Amino acid sequence: MAERLEKLGLRTLRDVVEHLPRAYLDWGDATGLGELRLGQEATVACTVERVSVRPTRRRNLKIVEAVVTDESGARAVAVWFNQAWLADRLTPGTRLLVHGTLEPGRGLPSLRVDRHEIAGDGAGLHTTGLVPLYPASEEVSTWKLRELTEAALAPARFFADALPARLRVEESAPLRADALRAAHRPRERAEAEAARERLAFEELLVLQLGFLRRRRAVEEQTSAPALGDEGELVGRYRDVLPFTLTEEQQAAIKEIREDLRDRRPMQRLLQGDVGSGKTVVALYALLRAVEAGHQGVLMAPTETLAEQHFLTIEGLCRDLGVSCELLTSSLPARQHREVRERLESGEAEIGVGTHALIQEGVEFRSLAVAVVDEQHRFGVEQRRALGRATPHVLHMTATPIPRTLAQTVYGDLDVTEIARPPRGRRPVVTRWVSHERSAEAYTRLRRHLTDGRQAYVVCPLVSESEAIEARAAEGEAERLREAELAGFRVGCLHGKLRPTERREVMDAFKRGELDVLVATTVIEVGVDVPNATIMIVQEADRFGLAQLHQLRGRVGRGGEQSYCLLVSRPKDDLTEEASRRLEALVETGDGFALAEVDLELRGEGQLLGTRQSGLTDLKFTQLARDRHLIAKAREWAERLADGELEILDPLRREAERIENNRGFA
Fold first, then answer.
1. Inter-axis angle of helices 189-221 and 176-184, nearest 10
2. What is the CA radius of gyration of the chain?
3. What are the CA-CA distances from residue 521 to residues 6, 400, 410, 542, 564 (Å)?
4. What φ, ψ does residue 539 adopt, rounded to 5°?
5. What are phi and psi of 429, to 5 degrees?
6. Measured between alpha carbons, how far is 342 from 365 in angstroms, rounded to an integer?
7. φ, ψ at 338 (rounded to 5°)
8. Backbone region of residue 9 per phi and psi (left: phi > 0; alpha: psi in -120 to 50; beta: other values)
9. In the sheet that 563-568 helps form, which strands lie side by side, from edge to edge?
10. d(Cα 570, Cα 432) in Å, to the nearest integer?
11. Is 251 helix (H, G, I), strand (E, B) or coil?
């Protein structure tokens, strides 16, 4: 049994009592079959008359069908998909509590079962009141977990309570042991939710306290150069920009300016929607380092993005008389060595590159400011190495999340937002097109090309293999040259090209020597061609919501009206989640609003797991619902960290455990 429990992550008594129910079946809510209408979803108490297993044309899919009846004699056929093992348990006379939807059937109506419970003995544990349903497995049933939890709750009362007594009094928070019992054995659903929130608050408090402890340790152990007031170089930078900074860009610069005046290391997150102008703000921070006699670096997770950043800022730096170098691992050995030497001597004032910038053997004369773009894509150790290498760090992301969630995801950083794009940019018109109408999409694309504009065609996600993606992109480019885009100049860009080849293709597209760029997701971020006014995303339902929004951001970067056409299978052939993703893209171009939809669709585990090591360990918190708890936990963490209240040892130990095990970065 121990091995089976371990597969569910249950190794200790604490693990068992913290394994909360995923839902509850309420025997008090049960209704009769005869009271249901077709299409109604409800919980039904019934008894099995007979059961059968029916094969289907699909090789591994079997359907379990049980004729069931209620106390009034009303009958239906309860249906389970792909759970053939149930047939041995559903013997005639078995009492069931099932939750499902009543649908038309052949003869008797059909009850499509979402979840069920088999009634039996157990002193009412399984059949009385709110019956908890646990995340289970075929080897460990929710029935067995119910019994294990009941046995574990008694000794769990002796666990230390991490919350200080004064906090519990001020917040009217129950003891942890009482909250755990209420979560597992609630008298009503509201009691279960209140218990979960109490446990989530403690979890968030410990997490926030860990963030603050780490941040304060960094501030105490390192000292940053105070860069003083803006100088002549930054003044000239504002003059050479071909546009006026937006109010939000100015506000972001003001916050960064205050950070850089201090000897405390800047730890700030700059998050903004696609095309909001984050790079302009980031270059300001780098130039502040240069004019104070130091160096700056801009680090990106991929060579393609690093190259695009270099192309964006190198021209401005050249106009300002600032030397800028690109360093990636694919540079020839001699060129790599020469760039390293210029960084070490200080001849190179700004370095742009990948994680190669923080590898062993790369030294800087005086590194004062680092900008890390799309920092959630870096590994924890890479981010830690950067933190050791430089005192002032500005993190950037174009995948925004709401500020309250940012306080948890990036709890050790100050957060700055640039929510709106520069004036003059029109919202990209987005349309969802089925395969049957894809010819119309290419007709519209050709009209843009005829008018002198350029276009992107994004190839579908074929697999996790970059080599297969590359072949798919090349094959599609060749097909389009001979079919829909015959007569136009079509280039191809993917991650398997050598860096020099990628630069040549992108440079040709930027110079207008290519009309269409067929690409994989390597163009997701960093590509800026104002003359590109239309994009077709093939098999759009295969992409994630954030990724589609990033791709769409490659068009609409000039003053012309731009379009993004999402080509997919018909809606009836898609999952509900895929349909909602595409509908959300059509409805809004606001990245913050789309982040809310993505959070709702995928949950915090998937959406945030890659952003911050440890967030997927949250057991009780539901970030989409617990915004108020996040803010409250942040406030209390600051009070505790400031010493207003004595931090009890259990809370301190919890914070240290989180800090050591989750790898804050």
1. 140
2. 29
3. 38, 19, 26, 12, 15
4. 50, 50
5. -80, 125
6. 9
7. -65, -40
8. left
9. 429-434, 563-568, 532-537, 454-458, 516-519, 490-493
10. 10
11. helix
- The stretches of 412-488 forming alpha helices (DSSP H) are 438-450, 466-482
User: Cα–Cα distance between 168 and 636 in angstroms, integer?
Assistant: 11
pLDDT digits (tens, 9 = 90+) for 232-276: 999 999 999 888 888 999 999 999 999 999 888 898 989 888 878
Tokens representing residue 423 in the block: 């004036």
- Of 49, 48, 52, the C-alpha closest to 63 is 52
pTM: 0.71
Integer angstrom CA distances of residue 247 from 250, 390, 396: 5, 29, 18
The count of other CB atoms within 10 Å of the CB of residue 384 is 15
Q: Which residues contact 500 (CB under 8 A, 6 or more apart)?
A: none
432's enclosing H/E stretch is strand 429-434
Q: Which of 546, 536, 588, 545 is nearest to 567 (CA)?
A: 536
What is the phi-psi region of residue 497: left when phi exceeds 0, alpha when psi lies from -120 to 50, beta otherwise?
Answer: beta
Mean pLDDT of 467-489: 86
The two structure tokens encoding residue 317: 């730096």
- Quote the tokens at residue 188: 């009503």
CA distance 661 to 17: 21
Can you state the angle between helices 176-184 and 142-156, rounded to 10 degrees? Answer: 160
- 349-389 pLDDT, tens digit per residue, is 999 998 888 777 888 999 999 998 875 555 545 555 555 55
CA dihedral defined by 424, 425, 427, 433, rounded to 10 degrees?
140
Spatial neighbors of 279 by CB under 8 A, at least 6 apart, are 309, 312, 313
Nearest alpha carbon to residue 83 among 41, 108, 115: 115
Structure tokens at 310: 């270099």
- 560 close to 609: Cβ distance less than 8 angstroms: no
Residue 232, token pair as written in the block: 């002549």
Q: β-pairing, 429-434 with 41-55?
A: unpaired
The Cα-based distances of 574 to 44, 154, 403, 595 in angstroms read 30, 47, 32, 21
Average pLDDT of 41-69?
Answer: 88
What would the DSSP string read from start to end of 609-660?
A: TTTSTTGGG-SS--TTT-HHHHHHHHHHHHHHHTTSSPPPHHHHHHHHHHHH
Average pLDDT on 569-598 reads 87
**CA of 55: how far to CAs of 58, 64, 76, 82, 90, in Å?**
8, 9, 20, 10, 18
> Whose CA is closest to 280, among 406, 412, 410, 394?
394
